[in-house]
Design brief:
Blueprint: E1 15-20, H1 27-32, E2 38-43, H2 49-60, E3 64-69, H3 86-96, E4 98-103, E5 118-121, H4 127-137, E6 169-170, H5 180-183, H6 185-195, E7 201-208, E8 211-219, E9 236-237, H7 242-256, H8 266-269, H9 283-287, E10 304-306, E11 311-313, E12 318-319, E13 326-331, E14 334-337, H10 340-350, H11 364-377, H12 381-393, E15 399-400, E16 415-417, E17 423-425, H13 432-436, E18 446-448, H14 450-461, E19 465-466, E20 469-470, H15 474-480, E21 516-520, E22 524-529, E23 534-540, H16 551-554, H17 557-574, H18 576-580
Parallel strand pairs: 1-2, 1-3, 3-4, 4-5, 6-8
Antiparallel strand pairs: 7-8, 7-23, 9-18, 10-11, 12-14, 13-14, 15-18, 16-17, 19-20, 21-22, 22-23
Helix pairs in contact: 2-3, 6-17, 7-11, 7-12
């Protein structure tokens, strides 16, 4: 393990994978996608010298290349069926850049490889072994093995122990005290919600003790038989989960760095609020929805006109082409005039407040909190979050304005909008106000897949550490995941289980009172339980084709799914038969 490349520390560097022995994308390459953004290549024995030269050139531009050798046999006679020229290619590559080599097969084949910086033998090339090898390389699993043979220059019983794990891993439910059969009831629930058309598709993930034990995708992007199937790479519009996975994360970091005080007022950080009825709203009250703000303002409605036949966007406010005047993209081929953002902000500043500061959920507070993050950090909120959390953690699907980074086909549509934008919304944020603010807002706008959202929450359960880096202090996390003193449910930004049983419950009763997370209008939810070390993610596009479809909420699918995760823990913990078999 020269240069201590394993476990991989910095995942912001340019990383590539090279599969030797497979034609398409190998399982180990797919597993890499869970940890970082990587380019994937295949070594072809049929390639001509020019193709090999081009491949070497492409890989030379990388900071790190993870090479996986597969499709080996056990015959020394034909060199274990190693692809022709592969050993020489890996040697050349090792002279150009850092290489981590994983041999998925016979350990004697290691003799072919003497130049890579780090060498790992994983013995088998089935999908599970390929996954485990990558998990070890990225610090998800310890490495404790010793070589059972001599494969010069690697002697018998050689090996390097790496006992510390720094990132999430993937495995069977039983390995963390959960019951597979119970957890698989999620399949039945997900199939039922799709059958009943509560949502065209969904994605569910359960992680315990930092190990993903359930991650499955169901259904399609739409109800059409020709529609694309949901897969592990699908991005969903997180809606109000943005409040915790983005805005709250930004405020937590600024609070920890002593650049922001949650006990101070909005007007302390936003000069434009001074003299308004929003100036003396304490930030912690705003985050707990106890500042007396109205829930929301339908900003888009005053930008519509009725021509006698239908209501449509006014040409005064919107144009099909981007220009200096019309520079805010709200949907495909639909740009809003940039100066209307000032009107939105004026409506928030001058709007009336509620007469009471009792709990009242509001998007307006988080719209203002985005401005606070930007004012204090000195940069756009999406860039601040990307620099602080998403990029160094490898959460490359967690992003605002995903169409700038991902193809349309990788993003689930949210609605066939016939009341405002007059088109199918796919990749542009569903929330109207967030769209009119340019796709980046404090209350909505964030997209992600399930594994990256779960990883962010795992970092919080870890006390602020992940991948060997410290992102937040445990005491900072405690401040924001403690209920506001005036309420029975909300922390600062985070939603928490309702402790007043006379009120509507928002989380399964099986979750601990320390659980924190949020739900989203588009049919999303994320919950982290530090007591059980359990992370639960539910992503869907229940708003397609219409946001009026409330079946997901009426049939309580999210809470039922969350409860099944706890049932899987309880059955394993308390079943005499299961315990006796250990």
């Amino acid at each position: 393990n020269n240069d201590q490349l394993v476990p991989v520390a910095n995942i912001e560097k340019k990383i590539a994978t090279l599969s030797i022995g497979s034609d398409g994308k190998a399982p180990f390459q797919t597993q890499v996608d869970a940890y970082c953004k990587a380019k994937h290549f295949n070594y072809s024995t049929a390639g001509n010298p020019e193709e090999q030269k081009n491949l070497l050139s492409d890989l030379d531009a990388m900071d790190l290349v993870i090479v996986g050798v597969t499709a080996l046999n056990n015959s020394n006679k034909d060199n274990f069926k190693l692809a022709k020229g592969a050993a020489e290619f890996v040697a050349k590559l090792s002279d150009l850049t850092k290489v981590i080599l994983i041999v998925y097969g016979n350990p004697y084949s290691l003799s072919n490889f003497i130049k890579p910086n780090s060498v790992l033998c994983a013995y088998n090339d089935d999908a599970l072994s390929q996954s485990l090898g990558i998990q070890a390389v990225f610090g998800g699993l310890p490495i404790l093995g010793k070589l059972p043979v001599t494969a010069l220059p690697y002697p018998f019983e050689s090996g390097i122990n790496i006992t510390t794990t720094t990132r999430i891993s993937f495995g069977e439910p039983e390995s963390v005290g959960m019951d597979s059969e119970t957890l698989n009831r999620l399949d039945e629930l997900a199939n039922d919600l799709i059958k009943k058309q509560a949502s065209p598709g969904c994605e569910l993930l359960v992680m315990k003790d930092g190990k993903v034990v359930y991650s499955k995708q169901f259904g399609k992007y739409t109800y059409s038989n020709k529609s694309q199937a949901v897969n592990e790479s699908t991005l969903y519009d997180l809606a109000s989960v943005t409040k915790v996975a983005a805005t709250t994360m930004g405020i937590m970091k600024l609070y920890e760095n002593r650049k922001l005080d949650v006990y101070k007022y909005l007007g302390t950080y936003l000069p434009e609020l001074r003299g308004s009825n929003k100036e003396f709203m304490a930030i912690r009250d705003v985050m707990a929805h106890r500042a007396g703000l109205f829930p929301w303002i339908p900003f888009y409605k005053e930008t519509l006109v009725n021509d006698g036949n239908r209501t449509r966007p006014s040409s005064y406010f919107y144009n099909s082409k981007k220009s200096d005047v019309f520079n805010i993209k709200v949907a495909s081929r639909m740009y809003m005039r940039g100066d209307y953002v000032n009107s939105i902000w004026d409506q928030i500043i001058t709007g009336q407040n509620l007469q009471s500061t009792d709990y009242r959920y509001s998007d307006l507070g988080f719209i203002m909190l985005r401005k606070v993050v930007e004012e204090v950090s000195g940069m756009p909120m999406n860039k601040f979050l990307d620099d602080t959390y998403y990029r160094p953690m490898g959460l490359y699907t967690m992003t605002f304005k995903p169409l700038e980074k991902f193809p349309l086909s990788q993003i689930a549509p949210t609605e066939d909008d016939r009341y405002f934008r007059q088109q199918v919304l796919q990749g542009d944020v569903h929330d109207m106000a967030a769209a009119m603010l340019g796709g980046v807002s404090g209350h909505a706008g964030l997209f992600s897949n399930s594994i990256h959202l779960a990883t962010l929450m795992q970092m919080l359960i870890n006390g602020g550490t992940y991948g060997g880096l410290n992102y937040l202090k445990p005491e900072t996390i405690k401040v924001f995941t403690t209920r506001h003193p005036g309420g029975t449910r909300r922390g600062l930004g985070f939603d928490m289980p309702q402790t007043d049983w006379s009120l509507t419950q928002n989380v399964t009763a099986k979750a601990s009172r320390e659980t924190f997370g949020h739900i989203g209008f588009t049919g999303t939810a994320v919950w982290a339980d530090p007591q059980e070390k359990l992370v639960f993610v539910f992503l869907s596009n229940r708003t397609y084709p219409t946001m009026d479809n409330n079946l997901l909420e009426r049939r309580n699918y999210r809470m039922k799914a969350h409860a099944i995760a706890y049932d899987a823990i309880n059955k394993y913990d308390h079943s005499g038969d299961l315990n006796a078999s250990l």
